[in-house]
Amino acid sequence: MGRGFYGGSRGSRGGFRGGRGTGSRSFEQEPLEAIELVGEVSHTCQRDLVCKLLNEGVPFFNAPIYLENKQEIGKVEEIFGPIKKSLFSVKLSDNLNTESFKEGQKMYINKFKLLTMERIMSFNAPKG
């Protein structure tokens, strides 16, 4: 006797279920030798750092942020403010607190985790 959409009998899968994947998205990370200055600490807000964007590019959301010694400190949470004076917030890793950082401290990012301003502006261009 059939089993509805799942088809088959005696426990077979059959039907519309599709294949199984491993569920992991393993991909190679770019080397950390390719980090560059992205911004500097402006101030803190609750458990986040608010940083001035100093790079021509705009960081990806959730991109890892590093210190100059390549220690990961957190991830980009939000990007806000005017285009020429943008800010971004960094959600710190669980083992760090905002008191560890001083105003003006430099923040770094993997250069492959930046979008160019031209690319961002082209998303807003009229399609025709």
Helix-strand pattern, N to C? EEEEEEEEH
Fourth-level CATH superfamily of the domain at 32-115: Probable tRNA pseudouridine synthase domain
Strand order of the largest sheet: 1-2-6-5-4-7
What is the CATH class name of the domain at 32-115?
Mainly Beta
**C-alpha-based Rg, rounded:** 22 Å
Largest sheet: 6 strands, antiparallel, barrel
Distance between the termini: 55 Å
The low-confidence runs, each spanning 5 or more residues with pLDDT under 50, are: 24-28
- Beta-strand proportion: 25-35%
Count every beta strand, where a strand is a DSSP E run of 2 or more residues. 8
Shape: globular
CATH second-level architecture of the domain at 32-115: Beta Barrel
Averaged pLDDT, please?
83
Query: Helical stretch count?
Result: 1
Helix content, binned percent: under 10%
CATH fold descriptor of the domain at 32-115: Thrombin, subunit H
Structural class: mainly beta
Structure, described:
- There is one protein chain.
- By secondary structure, the protein is mostly beta strands.
- The chain has a domain at 32-115: Probable tRNA pseudouridine synthase domain (Thrombin, subunit H).
- The chain has one helix and eight strands; from the N terminus they run E-E-E-E-E-E-E-E-H.
- It has one helix at residues 117-124; strands at residues 35-45, 48-53, 58-59, 64-66, 72-80, 87-92, 106-110, 114-115.
- The strands form two sheets. Strands 1-2-6-5-4-7 form a six-stranded antiparallel β-barrel.
- A hairpin with a 6-residue loop joins strand 5 (72-80) and strand 6.
- It is globular and about 50 Å long.
- Mean pLDDT is 83; it is low at 24-28.
